[in-house]
């Protein structure tokens, strides 16, 4: 017996990761290419991609490495981070993630690979989890309506500023911020306020609103409770004074402190904002974390972001859905007051489950322990002659050591503890859930004092003001009392996950959303302590591994896109848009062109483009889209000429929102540049370009990228995301920066876009690993297979559904749009009917009615294998045959499997009065009984839920019907 000789080098190489990431193997690719009439991937993309944008050479990236090698390299980077006990505070705290939540939520693909719950019938698990989150926030803040999470505390506060201006009685005046608010929050608000003409005033409000400020008018006030210094003050008189001036009052609150302190709602606040990070979510060098906002009832329908509500399904049973979806930004567009179109779902689920697992008693115990450590620490410092500035505090102390602050902080660092130097005389010290006796000893030693914990514990008095102690109940709903044992919690999480459809079940062919593989190797490092437990304001010397990873990722993203500089600070695509537009605005202003404020946007663009432009202080002018899906060249040139002197920027998505490679993109860019404007290439569809074309080289000046799309960060049920912004050299001086970390951006930058210096740094190892695993050739092949898969689906479905738009050679890019409108007109079967019927076939529907009403936009990505692509095509073809039965009269137009979809297991019981069989309902062609996905509810009545807005957990007796 002989074997072919293979070299050791070849054996060491192993299976290239791209073969794990790309679904169709070589044989499958050959079949797909033959079906659409091409002999190779290169031949296909040479035809599909216009010559004028093609990259001249391969991407200059390091050679691809194996999974084992990349993990080893990441371990090396992690080892360069130094994780000290963090007592810095400022909104970021050590926390203990219960392992049952870590393993079964954060590390579970059933939770992290799901998409935004736009198809609520197959999202009931995560919607229930989000309702738990909303209930937790509403109860603790004492305000009745909470959203389903925002990006972080800083942006939540900025959204509160905008909300205050919109709903309050005072339409002019200033936004007043107490000086004891978190510095990063103040900075984010200032960044957001300046382009829209809002004046921000920061003042010490401990003695009330200064008369000179009151005289100018105040539309909103922001307070921190407890303050950044740790001070706990009673704000009732201040809130009353603000209300007398007609101002809306926002309280930025610490949820853990609110388990012991009177809620903002009871104190009189109109809005509460903050972060849920310390409820079991690792610091992650700044994110991702779920911010929150809760409001009084009268502001519920004006909340930015997403809101989970309770409705009913077709059988009248309670069911959850996203409420008020018409507020989503693709509808509000240039009339939007916020560009938030996402959330932090995965992190909100973790925080909500932390409250479910601990319950009110457990949370109070954690809070009391945290507070007690702070009290004992303060007692020891006072006994040693150190002045503690405030008598009332929850977890944070400010110690006065004249001229010695730097010395104390350095000594604490030597003892393994990070403190915060406020100035030359003041040191901030924050306790949290993870604080132990060793940290107290280290801090005392740094101040040059010694203490006995037991003696000091006996001597330390309570420091929370009696008048502010909380007396009302909270978290009374049974969900916060039922799951104390790990067994019970494990089963609850499994029950919720089983209700949902995520990538671990099958393909999610959502156009524009790029639901591709989130490889385990890429995900694993996120939970390593060296990445998860680092405070974002830790000294840069302790974060060398992180900073190297960030620098390399920024450089590699710049290489991929053809830009000169990338900032990864924006923690969502919408925030990347805002950062890019602010850079354009700052560039024009630096050149003396303040009049350049017009932003041209094609009518087909996603609504966040227009919303971001408004937030950046620009005037939106809409450009028509032609019948072929391309930008109407005549209308574009006419509007360029009309606004030539005022033109700031053109925002264009490429490939177009209609899923085609527009051939005239370089001429469009040239025309805008000739008029003195800049070109913003929206990077939402970058998965069709990587390795084939670079926006920064075919005419773009600035782009945001979606790392939660093209670069494999999972969608997490609707968040987290990362939206880096890439720019050419002339815009680089105007990228985001941060007041607490000088290395996070240029000194001339526009200010922080996110609360943390490097945004959601904790999930950047995912994209770093993806690029490292794939290399230049792997990334290019991934793009080519994405284009191949989309064209294969388009070709298979074309005989049954019209494909609405095509580009060069009759090809689509990485997604295709099929038109259901003629079928609806002929048969009455709606786009909703098709989407819900796909659930019976075991699929998540493609993107509905965007960018064209009555259509489905399908994006298969490169990760789905041929078997799954064919299963989807077979389902769509079978549904087309079902539509024909309705059209021919064989099935009743009002009582058929499409109109009644989806069908639950419960619907099969009892009498069956439908004119089609049970088998036709739940086991249509191609569906195996043993592999059947059963939706937990029937079709949900959205209008009922919007009319009867319920946004927290209803009592159990509400489910009796």
Brief digest:
The chain has 961 residues and is α/β, with parallel strands linked by helices. The chain has 3 domains: 84-305 and 340-506, Type I PLP-dependent aspartate aminotransferase-like (Major domain) (Aspartate Aminotransferase, domain 2), CATH 3.40.640; 572-761, Type I PLP-dependent aspartate aminotransferase-like (Major domain) (Aspartate Aminotransferase, domain 2, 3-Layer(aba) Sandwich), CATH 3.40.640; 779-945, Alpha-Beta Complex (Aspartate Aminotransferase, domain 1), CATH 3.90.1150.10.
Report on the structure:
The radius of gyration is 28 Å and the shape is globular. Helix 24 (607-615) links the parallel strand 17 (598-602) and strand 18. Helices cover 38% and strands 11% of the residues. With 961 residues, the protein is an alpha/beta fold. The strands form seven sheets. A seven-stranded mixed sheet has the order 2-8-7-6-5-3-4, sandwiched between helices. The chain has a four-stranded antiparallel sheet with strand order 11-12-15-14, covered by helices on one side. A four-stranded parallel sheet has the order 18-17-19-20, with helices on both faces. It starts with 7 loop residues before the first helix and ends in a 14-residue tail after the last helix. The modification N6-(pyridoxal phosphate)lysine is found at residue 709. Its cofactor is pyridoxal 5'-phosphate. It comes from Streptomyces caniferus. InterPro entries: GcvP, GDC-P_C, GDC-P_N, GDC_P, PyrdxlP-dep_Trfase, PyrdxlP-dep_Trfase_major, PyrdxlP-dep_Trfase_small.
